[in-house]
TrEMBL record:
InterPro entries, A to Z: CheY-like_superfamily, EvgA-like, NreC/VraR/RcsB-like_REC, Sig_transdc_resp-reg_C-effctor, Sig_transdc_resp-reg_receiver, Tscrpt_reg_LuxR_C, WH-like_DNA-bd_sf
Cross-referenced CDD domains: LuxR_C_like, REC_NarL-like
Signal sequence bounds: none
Modified residues (4-aspartylphosphate): 54
Stated name of the protein: Response regulator transcription factor
UniProt entry keywords in alphabetical sequence: DNA-binding, Phosphoprotein
Domain annotation HTH luxR-type: ranges: 143-208
Residues of the Response regulatory domain: 2-119
Gene3D superfamilies in UniProt: 3.40.50.2300, Winged helix-like DNA-binding domain superfamily/Winged helix DNA-binding domain
Keyword Metal-binding: no
Length: 219
């Protein structure tokens, strides 16, 4: 069994890797420290049997990475593990396709049990966490579906667009010509159903994660 841990905190990845590769679960673990790494892993090795995903990682805009992955690999479960356990965040993550939501402060026993339940086919789990009655909006779900139709390169362009980078800056970061970025941008606009950079940013903004409460750990 193969598992990808997508998180930009190396110490947490290592700790989680020890848990996942141990006797209780026994999975082979691949690390991804940003969304680009996750894309590369999926492109080269295929979707893993389980993805453990932190919402707050480089290349992600709120629930964008979750929506993209679930939309492309609906049969592969995702467990969101985050320090942001706001009730609205938990509910929206599940609405966007997460099989479960775990707090980063959960005990190893809670994490192990939840992971085993998900691998056994259970869904909608959020051990010890409150869930809001207000789910993801239809607009947010539509945007997530649109992002799922993007290629990995188009997804990266869209993410950099949200960060405020200009076409020439995006081209430099991705090591391609500006004309290539313009072509990608045209496809991003078309799939999102928008006509400008501002409209694209506003659309993807529907996937913004609810800010962590004072009682939450900083992700």
């Amino acid at each position: 069994m193969k598992c990808v841990i997508a998180d930009d905190h190396p110490l947490f990845r290592e700790a989680l890797s020890i848990l996942i590769s141990g006797k209780s679960i026994g999975a082979d673990v691949i690390h991804a420290e940003c969304v680009a790494d996750l894309h590369s892993t999926v492109e080269s090795d295929g979707a893993p049997d389980l993805l453990l995903l932190d919402l707050h990682m480089p290349g992600a805009s709120g629930f964008s990475a979750l929506g993209w992955y679930v939309g492309n690999h609906p049969d592969k479960p995702v467990i969101v593990i985050s320090a942001n356990t706001h009730a609205d965040t938990v509910r929206r993550a599940i609405d966007h396709g997460a099989a479960a939501f775990l707090s980063k402060s959960s005990s190893t026993d809670v994490m192990t049990h939840c992971i085993k339940q998900v691998l056994a086919g259970e869904r909608g789990l959020h051990p010890g966490l409150e869930v809001s009655t207000n789910g993801a909006s239809l607009k947010a779900l539509d945007v997530a579906d649109a992002l799922a139709s993007l290629t990995p390169q188009q997804f990266r362009v869209a993410s950099m667009l949200v960060e405020g980078l200009l076409n020439k800056q995006i081209a430099y970061e991705l090591g391609v010509k500006e004309a290539t970025i313009k072509a990608h941008m045209t496809e991003v606009f078309r799939k999102l159903g928008v006509q400008s950079r501002t409209q694209a940013v506003l659309a993807i903004g529907n996937l913004t994660v609810t800010p962590a409460q004072d009682t939450d750990l900083i992700a």
